[in-house]
Amino acid sequence: MQKNITATIITLNEKKHIREVILNVQKICNEVIVVDSFSSDETCEIARELGVKVIEQKYLGDGGQKAFCEQFATNEWILSIDADERLEEEAVEYLKNFDYENGDADAYSFRRKSFIGKKFIKQWYPDRVVRLYNKSKCGYNTIGEHGKVETDNFVDLDIDMLHYSFENFGVLVSKADRFAVNLAKVRYAEGKRASWYDPFVHGAGAMFKGLISKGGIFGGIHEWHVAFASAYNSYMKYVIMLEMQENEK
């Protein structure tokens, strides 16, 4: 049974994922909107074939692009989902029967199960994200590297999304480099500054968090790989900030 919910999906060359994510959310949502950043593949054609409204928009950043989607939704409630995400079947059935409109919350969060290839990454779970929200009461931020729904009035739901984060570890490493650079620039622009010891402290902290605090040490060798990648990402973010500070002088 479909609900009066608009699913919004931002895309760029998501031919691999777009059909499955649309079919997934159409089990719940009576409207699906794709905002595409001028894909060069068949993303938009596939979406239109499935009866989805497609709007093309130059990329405004993760939060900015998701906030841009909101104006096109005819429903008050929005389910924001990325192309590489899916709702588990248990989550689909839960939401079909969930009375989200008559609760006191402005938004609801889901857990995410993230994968690299076919490997579930334990240390990234539960990775809660607010994705179902009332657009009249809250919405996405438009500043910063990562978008999130800005509200304190949300409820955690006991359901999961699947997140096919990276095809393989090579993609993880290549994106980690870009993410470190972008995040360093954002933090620097916000006025944050690094000390000489920050790369070491935060790199070691990321390793400890992934392996010990999050239990990755017991998840197999791929969990160690992820912890090292996270440590490298954190280390390089502060190295880049230090370099920016030196260049400023």
SSE order and pairing:
Elements (H helix, E strand, L loop, with lengths): L2 E9 L6 H8 L3 E8 L6 H7 L3 E4 L5 H8 L7 E4 L4 E3 L1 H8 L10 E10 L2 E2 L8 E6 L4 E2 L8 E2 L3 E13 L2 H21 L8 H16 L7 H28 L1
Helix pairs in contact: 5-7, 6-7
Strand segment tally: 11
CATH evolutionary superfamily of the largest domain: Spore Coat Polysaccharide Biosynthesis Protein SpsA, Chain A
Query: How many independent structural domains?
Result: 2
Query: Pairing-aware structural class of the strands and helices?
Result: alpha/beta
| Element order: H for helix, E for strand | EHEHEHEEHEEEEEEHHH
Shape: globular
Note the beta-strand portion: 25-35%
| CATH topology term of the largest domain | Spore Coat Polysaccharide Biosynthesis Protein SpsA, Chain A
**CATH uppermost class of the largest domain:** Alpha Beta
N/C terminus separation: 61 Å
Outline the low-pLDDT stretches.
Answer: none
Overall radius of gyration: 19 Å
- Write the CATH architecture name of the largest domain: Alpha-Beta Complex
